[in-house]
Design a protein that fits this description.
This protein is mainly α. The chain folds into 2 domains: 155 residues, no CATH class; 131 residues, no CATH class. Helices cover 75% and strands 2% of the residues. The chain has a two-stranded antiparallel ribbon with strand order 1-2.
Amino acid sequence: MPDFFQTYYIDPIKYNTGYNIVNTATFAIILVVAVIGTYKLLQKLNVKIDKNFFIGIAPFIALGGVLRAWEDLLEATKATSQLLESPIRDFILVDAAGVPRNMLLISPVIYISIFIIALAALLVALLINRATKWQYHRIWFGIGAIIIAGVILQLRFVNYPAMLLMLGIAAAWAFLFYAAKKVSPQAKKFFTMENYSILSIHMFDASTTFVALQFFPYFEQHVLPGFFISIFGPVAMFFIKLPVVAAVLYYLDKDMNEPSKKNFIKIVILILGLGPGLRNFLRLGMGV
């Protein structure tokens, strides 16, 4: 068992080889359990999964990608070496190249880190709400905005052409969805504001991957996308994302009648697109 754990969980991080079938399946199971548990927790806290909830959680959704990109910058500049003498030194893993990596800011642990930060901020917002009657989602958003602004100020950007290219391709997809909504009754029904935003975000993620792989020396870490990219090239990302995400959204709207649960699942889908996409975008923009 120690050898199995070392081979499939530790070595991919140590040697930066990406994901494999075993850890991918494990993380997928953990994700499902975490989603169910988080939903039940929000029910106990009497937090409705509605527009206000989305506004409040928005900065924390983006925070995951921003923190991951910051970790990339720290590793590239060898700044993580300072953490070997810090209180979190037990969470630092030195990779095969001798670069310390902060496990708290690397998948899948980063999702736990963001969950703890977001939950703590939510509890503070709910306490303030009960004491002052201020809307909890505004307080929650404010806390997240302050945190994410503090992290973004630590970043430095050098590759503006790549950033513009990624944004341009993503904007073209968003315009295509908007045009389809205008000319097709079926598309108009499908492209609600939520679905339009989620699908556009996932196309943003696909755009960042396409640019990184097509024009720069990066590689795809995930198993299934990596398989299709090895056959069809980086453009495969668009033809993986578009039908899969669209189909999931379609069947959620068609078969799930509980608005709160459906909204929560859509937020999870949004997270799975925005987190990696934002990390790719910022990392490529920083040139690391």
